[in-house]
Structure formats: C-alpha cells, structure tokens
C-alpha cells in the first residue's frame, strides 16, 4: 500500500497570511476567519482519523487489513474491518 503523507490544505496558509493583513473592520474578515476555521478543523479531523485507523491496524493480528464498511452519521462513525 502506498501511503501519502497528509498535507495541510492550501487555503489554511492563505487565510493565515491574509487575516493579519486585513483591517479589523473589513467586511470579508469574518468570512475568511470562518473559512480558515472550517478548513483547519477538517484537517485536524483527518489527522485524528489517520491516528485511530493506524491504531486499529496495529492491533490487527495480520500485517495487512482491509476496511469492509464505513458508515458515517451526524454523530457516529462505524468501521467494520477484517
């Protein structure tokens, strides 16, 4: 399996560079801050999922595992693996 390293989305550093340059009363500042928070929290969520999946695969008794089914709801996520 080829594992690519997770990279931070390009919008996060763009927003981080833009926010300090904008005036505190700029009309787009809340929109940009909200967008930054959305993309950054998504990135953190993906990193957390990577950690839990790697822990799950380490506990497996074989060197390879596969995920059979992923079920996502608003409150839970279920992973069925073999």
The overall strand count is 2
Strand order in the largest sheet: 1-2
Provide mean pLDDT, rounded: 83
Largest sheet: 2 strands, antiparallel
What is Rg? 18 Å
- Helix content class: 40-55%
Shape designation: elongated
Number of helices: 2
Question: Helix and strand succession?
Answer: HHEE
Q: Estimate what percentage of residues fall within beta strands.
A: 5-15%
List unreliable stretches of 5+ residues. Answer: none
Please describe the topology of this protein.
Elements: H1 11-18, H2 29-59, E1 67-72, E2 77-81
Antiparallel strand pairs: 1-2
Describe this structure in words.
- By secondary structure, the chain is an alpha+beta fold.
- It has one domain (11-81).
- It is built from 2 helices and 2 strands.
- It has helices spanning 11-18, 29-59, and strands spanning 67-72, 77-81.
- A two-stranded antiparallel sheet has the order 1-2.
- Helix 1 (11-18) packs antiparallel against helix 2.
- The protein is elongated.
- The two termini are 16 Å apart.
List keywords for this structure.
alpha+beta, 2 strands, elongated
Short description:
The protein has one domain (11-81). It has helices at residues 11-18, 29-59; strands spanning 67-72, 77-81.
């Amino acid at each position: 399996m080829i594992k690519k390293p997770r990279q931070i989305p390009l919008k996060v550093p763009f927003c981080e560079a833009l926010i300090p340059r904008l005036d505190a009363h700029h009309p787009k500042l809340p929109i940009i801050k909200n967008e930054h928070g959305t993309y950054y929290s998504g990135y953190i969520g993906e990193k957390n999922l990577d950690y839990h999946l790697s822990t799950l695969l380490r506990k497996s008794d074989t060197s390879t595992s596969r995920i059979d089914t992923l079920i996502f709801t608003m409150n839970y996520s279920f992973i069925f693996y073999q």
